[in-house]
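Preliminary data (for renewal application), phosphoenolpyruvate complex.
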Amino acid sequence: MTRRPLVAGNWKMHKTASEATRLIQQLAYSYDDAYAGVDVVVCPPFTALRSAQVTLDFDTNSPLRIGAQDVFWEPSGAYTGAISAAMLRDVACSFCIVGHSERRKYFSETDEDVARKAAALTGEGIAPIICCGETIETRESGGTVAFVTAQIEAALALLSASDAEPVVLAYEPVWAIGTGRTPTPEQADEVCAALRDCFRERYGAAAGEAVRILYGGSMNIGNGDAFAAMPNIDGGLVGGASLEAESFMALVKAFS
Ligand code: PEP
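Predicted structure:
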């Protein structure tokens, strides 16, 4: 089976609504039909999602899709500051990142939280991009595969096989995020292959073959092609390099 590549830009806490509009317009302008085989997703901050929706609505041919960076699992209620999956759907989000290591580190997000978020998203027809990744200490102790597969097993705990169909996995070593350091493409592929096995054991051979697995962590123009050449890496979750149209579209090109 050939999996459709996906390149998602995680803008983190960057870009005001007007800056987001400008970048989305630049991305749409730099888009080429040669990239038509790739799903291209931008994940602006919450405050720019509506602007992203309006900008893309205006350009009816735009292939860009919108994702969020987080969600709360309850459908509504007295949860000050929280955003529900239905609210994300209302601003045209078709993807949402969950379990990013920065959410785990700075907002104490647990594996159980990630599982609830993933379930809330699939319930609204939004595809969760479920992140996992080890620290440098875990990598150096040889525990990477056991650690990340445990994270993914926990994140999938509430999803049936049909719920899990839209799920995207993202392998993002914590030590590679924003540091300029990366595993070799072969090392990243080995971990992605293990994640695929984990999905296969849980949901069956066809699901394991179909699930899209992204690599993320200091991916850039210089290394994108090498990651894209790996058999188990189906795209990228891109931080810093997604903040400029030129570097982001270069990574889209690498996977096309
Ligand atoms: C990320 O945080 O998802 C990420 C991959 O960041 P960067 O590309 O900047 O390392």
